[in-house]
Amino acid sequence: MPNRTSTKDCQFIYLRESSAFALMFKFVVRNEYMRAFSLFICTILLVAGSHSFAQPDKMITNRDNYFWQFGIAWTTTDDDGQELNPVPIDQLHGLPFPSRLYADRYIYNGWSVEGVLGAQPYKTDRLVNDSIGVNGFIGYFDAALKYSFYKQLGRGAIDPYLGSGLGFSLRSADPKQSAPMLTPTVNLSAGCTFWLSKQIGLQAQGVYKFGLVDILGNASYSQYSLGLVYRIEKTDGYKSDFHKPKYKLPRKPSRIKVEKSTDES
């Protein structure tokens, strides 16, 4: 007779197999380093968010650091199947020219949203999910919410940030490729922009991407990038309160009346 599965067993199988977020949580909890890294980023983002939006509007000055940021970056990908373990430099996949484009839109008091588009081919002599000789490429589109510590550091040359968001990764079909072809991801990122001038900066970033299709398998990977960013400043972002009409000085000088003396010689 065929085996019958009870209702409780079906519920357990459904939760175990179909809940990607539960698998990701299990993956993070079991790994000590990933648990610490995720907890650190989530704590910083929560503290920054509560601090930013809890302040009265009149107490916040210079809220708008910039209007837009656009950049290009040289990117290397660690997709060897053991993403939490450092790999030798000669096993990373990369190109000698920029392969990552991104745009950043400032929102409010250190918060911004970023969109990323990139792709790069696999090198056949390097590891891809524990296999050698994998042909094809990996492409990705990501969207992230970022928080910058630029204001806390005095708006100088150093601009560190943390980010979290969602994305999609597309891998080309190959018999040796064990990862799914299309993978939605949850991303955690950390980086820093070193401003060389008011508009030009050098940005370094690392991002870990949890593959939601196969979290405990080969869908997850990490990327490291180094790029150039161009900042478009917001014209009214650095005005003080003295630009308001009630603080404007009168254009015409006031006349001072002097009483004439009654005693004339």
- Structural class comes to alpha+beta
Mean pLDDT, rounded to whole units? Answer: 76
- Count of DSSP-assigned helices: 3
Please tell me the total number of domains: 1
- Taking Cα atoms only, what radius of gyration do you get, to the nearest Å? 27 Å
Intertermini distance: 134 Å
What is the CATH level 1 assignment? Mainly Beta
| Beta-strand residue fraction | 35-45%
In CATH, the topology is named: Porin
Morphology call: elongated
Unreliable sequence segments: 1-5, 7-38, 47-63, 237-244
Helix content: 10-25%
Can you give a write-up of this model?
By secondary structure, the protein is an alpha+beta fold. It has a single domain (12-233), classed as Porin. The chain is built from three helices and nine strands. It has helices at 7-18, 20-30, 32-54, and strands spanning 68-78, 93-94, 100-108, 111-121, 137-148, 158-171, 182-195, 200-211, 221-232. Strands 1-3-4-5-6-7-8-9 form an eight-stranded antiparallel β-barrel. α2 (20-30) crosses α3. The longest helix has 23 residues, at 32-54. Mean pLDDT is 76; it is low at 1-5, 7-38, 47-63 and 237-244.
